[in-house]
Amino acid sequence: MPQDKSNTFTKIYEIVRDIPCGNVATYGQIAELTGNRRLSRVVGYALHSNPDPENIPCHRVVNRFGEVSKAFAFGGVNRQVELLEAEGVKFKDGKVDMKTYQWKKRLL
DNA sequence: CGATTGACTGACC
DNA sequence: AGGTCAGCCAATC
Asked: What pLDDT, on the 0 to 100 scale, is given for residue A71?
């Protein structure tokens, strides 16, 4: 079981990995869960490094607008959208209904 | 170790 | 959710 070795990065990975299927989280949301909402940029940076893409579904991480970044290098920006749709997340105009799919670490 | 950058967010217009 | 400015944190060069 992975433990906090460096914190921050690892913590971010833990949280992102904890995002359930059919749900998406925002950088700010994750940043806040890490302890500092200002870490939003670091969150993006951590995902950018993405040392463990198999355990880090960064495709479930979207910005505050519910829109994914165009810098995703999964092999295709559109690729991420398909992955989310495959999990049940419907995209609207290239964006996700945050109020509907934003990950809520609660109930359910 | 110092400076830069970055997949962000919030406030203001 | 449209555009711009500023802020904060950590990793990378």
From this structure: 63
